[in-house]
Amino acid sequence: MKAVLSTPEVHNRIDYIDITKGIGILFVVFGHVGFLGAYAFMFHMPLFFFVAGMLFWPRKDEKSYFTDKAIQLLVPYTVYLLLIYGFQLYVEFQDRPLTLENGLKAIGKGILGSRWLGGYTTVFWFIPCFFLVQQLTNGLLNRVNPKRILGLMGLLLLLSYLDSLYLQPIRVPWNINVTLAAIPIFYAGYAYSKKEWTVNVFFVILGSFVACALVYKGYHNTYDMKNAYYGIPVLTLLSSICIILLIIWISRALSETVFLSSLFPTLGRASLTIMYLHEPIQSIVAEHWTQDKAVRIVMAVGLPVIVYQLQEKTVLTRALFLGSRRDFKLLFQTKKELVNQQDQVKSSSSEAHLHAKHLDA
Fold this sequence. Notes:
It contains 16 helices and two strands. It has helices spanning 13-33, 37-40, 44-54, 62-92, 100-112, 126-143, 146-166, 179-193, 201-216, 235-254, 260-269, 271-288, 293-311, 315-321, 325-332, 335-360; strands at residues 4-5, 199-200.
């Protein structure tokens, strides 16, 4: 019997996804601490686009989808940007004068995001780009004939390579150019969730081994999405997909263990909080305490998990820091708007149930 990697059963899907995200965010931290960095940069950001695609289903009400995702993603992004970028600027302006010109430039960088942000906010590029990928993919699937989707994804990948080859030094607000590479990966996760394709385990393991061997031998087999550098054309993308699928396979196995099935989902659920906080934490630890990578990793993962658990405790923090749509609407919407939203939630829940039934078929 041919061994294949298939989509998980619905009742196991949330733990399965959280475990995958937990492993993924660990490698994000590894990459920024400088531990296994070249290996982490092969797949860690594509993994989050792929996994999000697995949970995606097209929404016909595009206005509602836009609003929901703006609350879920852009509200916490804005709050964290104000806090962490504000702190970063405070530190930077200790060593240089704060003039009107410098202040306006700093504000402009915060608004533009993308590669204008670095230091404590170096990973913040992901959220606006991710938001755009969700919206654009939803719009495409609502408008484009399914028979033409694969061709369109191929065209987007081609354009992403051309952008990387000829326009890579140019910074683009919110990494809009990176959506050319991210949308096909997001769609691949969506197609995988619909069981439109399966992958032979042997080829996934072999591909992952070859991918790591290329990095070990010094080849630039990295998929650095923030900087629009996509490594060896096609080969690095396939390397990334192989490793992502291998992690998915491993996550399925881990979901059956008692200890690890609780550890990794915790990291997965806290993954966005870890994403926002790990860089300032590990940088401050490195500057003021120790350069030891193990200590920096533990601090950069452990402290955000504690923060996440505290954020879960109140309506205000769930709304502003975790992007909880329900809590945000409790805080800011009128009673009439809440009634209308409840009707929309019922409609969305019905669509989600249909999507889950399809996954379980």
